[in-house]
Write a structure and sequence with these properties.
Helices cover about 35% and strands about 15% of the residues. The chain is built from 9 helices and 8 strands. The longest helix is centred in the first third of the chain and has 17 residues, at about 60-75. It is elongated. The N and C termini lie far apart (about 90 Å).
């Protein structure tokens, strides 16, 4: 029985691996190729594992992922489900994630998180617990145009933070406290419309949720 000629994979790329040359064929006619990994190591891989995507590196990718997970565990210390971790994570989303509803008011204005905190929750947690953090408090920047960093941050209640906002009118709805401009961005209701509704005495929840054009008298507003 004639044995089929093995496929020539020379120069083909599979993930981080580049096939260099055929190493050998086993009794079942499986081809094994010498591959060079992007990290510089060489490894021998069965052709089926290369073409199926089962093997995409010399093993360095798996090691990197393992190390990444270890670093994550060591920096969060099991606190990923705590309120403080949520605050830290949200702080970074506002500064670096363009799809975040509040990005334009933070990262979009050049506000960032200091290197000491950005990739190290443990450092942020240590600072927080040493600087008055308690359940119910919120992180506040002393200079509303400054960055998130130890010298410009403090823990205060929502009323205190509201006084420090660029737009001082804060509306709390379903547990979230935001400026009128932020609610406008989220609800697609014009900022001027929300402001006018509040001035006329509307219930704040109605002011940020009722579609434009829907008039509500103060006496009819929710809560009156």
């Amino acid at each position: 029985m004639k044995i089929a000629k093995p496929l020539d994979l020379t120069g083909d790329k599979y993930g981080r691996l580049t096939a260099m040359k055929l190493s050998y064929r086993d009794k079942r006619s499986n081809s094994f190729w010498i591959c060079k990994c992007d990290c510089g190591n060489e490894t021998v891989v069965r052709i089926g594992d290369l073409r199926s995507g089962n093997t995409t590196s010399c093993g360095c990718f798996r090691e990197e992922q393992s190390n990444k997970a270890l670093v994550e565990r060591s920096t969060t210390h099991g606190h990923t489900k705590t309120r403080l971790y949520t605050i830290w994570h949200g702080m970074k989303l506002r500064c670096y994630t363009k799809s975040n509803a509040s990005y334009k008011y933070y990262g979009g204005r050049g506000i960032s998180v200091c290197d000491e905190w950005k990739d190290d929750f443990a450092s942020f947690r240590t600072w927080s617990l040493s600087n008055g953090y308690k359940e119910g408090l919120t992180i506040d920047r002393v200079d509303a145009n400054g960055n998130y960093e130890p010298s410009n941050c403090r823990w205060i209640n929502y009323k205190g933070q509201a006084r420090n906002k660029r737009n001082n009118k804060i509306i709390t709805y379903r547990g979230e406290s935001k400026t009128i401009s932020e609610w406008s961005e989220i609800t697609n209701i014009k900022q001027s419309t929300i402001s006018e509704r509040v001035r006329l005495g509307w219930d704040e929840a109605e002011a940020i949720t009722r579609p434009a054009g829907k008039y509500v008298r103060k006496s009819d507003a929710v809560g009156n």
